[in-house]
Amino acid sequence: MTLVLLLLLLLPTTSPAPYKVGLLLDALDTYKSSTLSIAEYAADDTSSRIQIVTEEFNKTMRSIIDACCRLVEKGVVVVISDSSSTQTAIQADILTPMKIPLISAGATDPFLPSVKRNFLLRMSPSDTYQSRAIFDIIKFYEWEKISILASSDSYGLHGLLELQRLMAQEIGYSVKNVFFFRNLSGAIEALHGLKSALARIIVLNCVASRGKEVLEAARDIGLLSKGVVWIVTDAIAASPEFEHASDGVSVSPWDGLLGVRPAIDRGPAYDIFEKIYLQLDRNLDELTTYRLMTFETVAFVDSTLAGLEKKYSQVTSCSMPGGWKDGKAMLSALRNTDYTGITGRTNFTKAGQRGRVSYDVVNFAGGTFQRVGVWHNSSGLAMAGSVKFIGGGKSVPPASASNLIGQHLRLGILPEGPFSYLKADCEGNACWSGLCPDMVTRMADDLGFTYEYVVPDDGKWGGFNVTSGAWNGLIAEILSETIDIVTLPLSTSTARKEVIEFSYPFMDSGLLAVTRGDSRIDTNFFFLSPSRGRCGWQLSQPHS
Fold first, then answer.
1. Stretch 139-164: mean pLDDT
2. What letters, b where the CB count within 10 A reaches 16 and e where it falls short, cover 351-384?
């Protein structure tokens, strides 16, 4: 009997088959190999409970659908995606009817969740929280007016809606202007608009590759300079193109950028993780924010699977009626998991979002983004480090332009002597003379701006048409942003003050009483008797 027991103990035992976890990869993603490497390392580092199986897709919807179905046919119990919000939406629309949980490592569109995508969980926080973090930064520095520059895709259009709402809601704060662009030429046009508008606090929201081109163009036209603040969103602040952008030079063109990105708790757990990762002859440049989110997602799934009391079945066909019978149980297990890893604590709300949301506030210096603060959805903003703004200054730039150096102004003008004269058959600034052009020349020399004169097409000063409800002349040019300033003694009126702002008057005119030099004035009310021949009336008013 003893011999039999010993033989039974010596017989080889079989471990339970690992759960298959799907990983969807964009075939055109430059960093897909890094994503796969991180995921496989996470699976090997945690346990033998997980086997990573991958499928690639291209940009077409058909390709994404086919990749999802191929994973289902391989018997996966959870799918992990490192895709964009648009791609994630398609993946969720395919996997939800199959009752296969989908966990997104990087999708942030606030409009992504819906009742029809209730099997979608998101490791990265919604852009709604990002907007709140940026708003708290803006309030911290008391920047009452900002400008927004964003791509015209869903990421750009949706990403800062909450920021615009908060700015409109807060007394004393406003969004000065918003520019959207489809391509680089559109972005350059928008940048010139921002420069003409004297924008000083600019929030940039677009994908990293486009963001780099936009910032390079901004640098070329002098908009990435001292006195201008750029706040970039997570797509840029968490991108490998910026996150590890050191090229051995002491000064980078991106020095001074501010940004936010999902927080990584770089404490003891992260230090251990990084040390082991280096021992595997891996590249630390792979460990960007969203690559680490992928690692955390795999570790989170492993933590869930470790707590399962039974082995779940598998679904092996996209056409199976009703989907996976154990899908709801798996989703419930994921939602009930409370896990703490290198990105902090992870647990999910009923809406499929992380309950605890944190962002790092980062400042580009020394060739990379460095943390200078943190934002929590429960406690708000806490700045913990010194910020260097663009140009190397530590003093906080104002929200409005404090000087005109380097600015190019479009000045509205009309021939009206003695204030302005136009030389016949002549073009250019030198063709204008008179009091106003003389003042402009002097101010341009003193204040450091360049300028050009613009004559309204209709040749009018600016009147309001009650029938059409529209202004004409110089006023219409200001309202359409064709010109920046009127360079003439434009008279003020209540109607004009409602639509444009006036400078401090440099000339005053009105009714004048004129008398002969040899006349004797015997009363202070002589002007009430003009018919006596001792005085005459003159109405002096500019033709405006």
1. 94
2. ebbbebbbbbbbbbbebebeebbbbbbeeebeee
| Predicted confidence (pLDDT) per residue in 78-104, tens digit | 999 989 899 999 999 999 999 999 999
CA distance 264 to 370: 12
Q: Which residues contact 398 (CB under 8 A, 6 or more apart)?
A: 200
The answer to whether the Cα torsion of 151, 153, 155, 160 is positive or negative is positive
Burial class (CB in 10 A: 0-12, 13-18, 19+), 469: exposed
Alpha helices in 197-340 (DSSP H): 208-220, 234-237, 240-243, 268-279, 289-306, 327-335
How far CA 521 is from CA of 155, 344, 513, 533, 538, in Å, comes to: 78, 90, 12, 12, 18
Return the closest-CA partner of residue 225 out of 195, 205, 250: 195
Burial bucket for residue 123 (CB in 10 Å: 0-12, 13-18, 19+) = buried
Instruction: Please tell me the distance from the alpha carbon of residue 371 to that of residue 383, in angstroms, as a whole number.
Output: 9
Q: What is the DSSP letter of 360?
A: E
Is the pTM value of this prediction over 0.90? no
pLDDT reading at 157 higher than 60 = yes
Cα distance between residue 186 and residue 178, in whole Å:
13
- Tell me the pLDDT tens digit for each residue of 299-324: 999 999 888 877 777 777 788 788 89
Which range is least confidently modeled, 144-158, 276-290, 518-532? 518-532
Arithmetic mean of pLDDT, 525-536 = 55
Burial of 198 (0-12, 13-18, 19+ CB in 10 A): middle
* Interatomic CA distance for residues 356 and 348, integer angstroms: 8
